[in-house]
Amino acid sequence: MTSQATTGSRLVRIFPILLILPAVALVTFLVIFPLIWALGLSFYSYNVIRGGAPIFIGVENYYRLLNSLDVWRRFVLTGQFVFYAVSIEFLIGFGLAHLFYNQFRGRRLAITLVTTPLLVAPVAVGIFHRYLFDATFGIYSYIAQLITGQPVKILSQYPMFAIVFMDVWQWSPFMMLFILAGLEAIPKHMLESSEIDRLSMLAKFRYVIWPTIRPLVALALLFRTMDAFRTFDTIFTLTEGGPGTATEVLSIQIYRIAFQFFRTGEAAALAFIFLVIIVLLTNIYLRLARRE
Amino acid sequence: MSRDGKISRRAALSTGAKVATAAVVTGVVGGIAGYLAGTSAQPAREVTRTLTQTVTQPGAGVQTVTQTVTRTETVTATAPVGEVKPELSITFASPEWLPGRLTGLIAKDFPAWSKATIGKAVEVKMDLIPWGAIFDRLSTVLAAKSKEPTLLISDSQWLGQFYVGGHIRRLNDIIARDPELQQLLNRFDPSLVYFYMTYPQGNTNNIVGFAHEGDVLLFVYRYDLFSHPTERENFKAKYGYDLPLNYEDWYPAQLDWYQIRDIAKYFTRKAGDELAGKRLEEDFYGIALHMSKAYDAIACPFGSILYSHGEYWWDPETGEVEGWINSPRARKALEFYVSLVPYAPPNALEIWFDEANAVMQAGKVAMIYNWAGFLPSLFDPAASKVYNVIRVVPPPGHKGDDGIFRRYSGIGGQPMCINAYSDYAEEALAFIKFWFQPQNQRKWAEGGGGVCIRDIIQTEWFRNLTPYNRAYADSIPFQVDFWNVPFFFEMLTVVQEEIHAALAGSISPQAALDNVARRHKEIIERENYPAAFEKYGKPAKNVAQLVRQGLPIG
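ok -> structure tokens follow
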């Protein structure tokens, strides 16, 4: 009886561990192990397509990358892209959320239509924006030509605008959904009280709306910033980083080093530098959000 | 359902869930079936191509009588499926385009042939991969030492990377034992052996592939515009010489790239202007040639212009770059390339093979410079407004300050190689022999494939088979390739980035070339070229010196 009870209590203790074991094993095998492997690889000179044994070179990959003007240029470029895209997405998402917060006929259909871009595969987004922006056959160029008599060469003359526009088109609805969820969560009685107290629009926003939606806005900004930093497929299919290197963000450079030049160790090092920057940014965001 | 006849929320949800589940199950089952069907299915049994033949008879003066006959032919595999039951399957990875599909069609006869010759019915399954993804896909598959694909199409510049990495087989020992293959080697045009089959280039000590799809850059021009009396008269009045009209005016005549610019400039018109007696409703452009940043879109056509100016990318023997790619001749070549932008369609900087075809098909441009392998759709009445008024000719050259006329062109096309990790090298080799059987080469030619066998290319039958075969055949001897060294992609990317920036006007041609030289030098020094690669031998000839002297390569 006693031994049965002991076995039973042991089972009770082990059971939760058994339940999470597959998930832990999966994460260890598919995420943690490759991450540690890649970290190790970043200290080696290794070209996967040429084979041969990896040569340990210490922090040389990191030293070379951090001293490369080209890499810093791409950091700055990526930062610019993220800043423009996320800021505009926030403003548009904020506006749309307020629009859809009001009840009107066809509201649900309108929300569905507005959120459609989120469902489109990024490669498809890149390709059809390529057609839209095409200076010879594209619709924007056609309209510009009707108005000004001149085609507009968006991809070759305003490439940053093109990639930001495309990102904004796809991801503004994401911001909208988060902010709308925040707005919907505001207790009705508080809004009614603010009406009764005749608060100005600004005061209503500052004291009633903002405190409620703030955590969700912070979360949406965090998600979008992290996501925008690693944008690859849309930009690659739209501009391939061109003209020249005008839109060559870091993720494209990592792809080139890893899968076109096959400098595997260097690509791993650059990916880790990138990872550290994103983790730092995330922490800054979270700290700011908590302080607020 | 509720008593009042309305559907309750629960019933609606339940029905919705059932429908969704049914849809998901159908999708999954359909997907699996489709996947299985796709992987096990034979390649298409038919390849359809459209042939346009133009017969021109001289009339009075420059007037000509032109009759264009367009016919659509379907090439069908002769051996019915299932005639010989395959005992073994091997995979052939190829780009997804007409030559790839056609290869699959011809391969249908291979089980019967292999049964008769090597005693084993071998089936060749095509793995068709889009052009944009094939290098990454093959590189990663080979890096993982995968046994399949047994056969693979390698772009000519990938050869060094795949061979040095030990991923494709060196074929010399097999060829040495096989008189049939030795004979076959002699049947290729020398420039194709040089650039498609060897690493280092032209070094026959390392034969690493067999030429499969030959491809060259050709000019397509609007014959109706070039032959229009008013246009001819006005052009001559402006530039002092005649517009080239017939094939012989382009080749073997020494038409110069700078004349091409004159022609491009002349034909660039705005909406409302007159063109060949008609008022234009939209802008019309002089020339569309590849200027996109994608892959090697710039390196090939700019290569043609560079070589024709008597310069090359580097010295392949020493690895020196300074004084080559940033020399005065190279600068002049790039300045010329950049000077074509105003006469190109507005999307000039995104133009590659598809875009070049699109502007020609839409009737918006006077000339394009495009790969022969992509020209068939220009002659398809369903796709092209100009299918019956265009002609295909070899590219021009350039007479340099030294008085030498050089005509070179950046080569395209691909060899087929054998995966070094495959267990079926013998079967792959049997397929290569099968491929070069006369009846299969005939099907290859008739289906629109780029034949690489010299004695076929030079026949009148082949030259007249398509509207572009004659130009293709005449162009092969003056083809030149860039690097096929293991670090080619980095060299290529530098060229694409810097010259694309020059085309966009972000930097000057000289600055772009100085950047190319600086970055190439860094790569070459890091790779310790040529010392680190000496064990593979040296290139057979110094292409750079030959180009400078204006001598043939092959």
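Strands of chain A lie at 44-45, 55-56.
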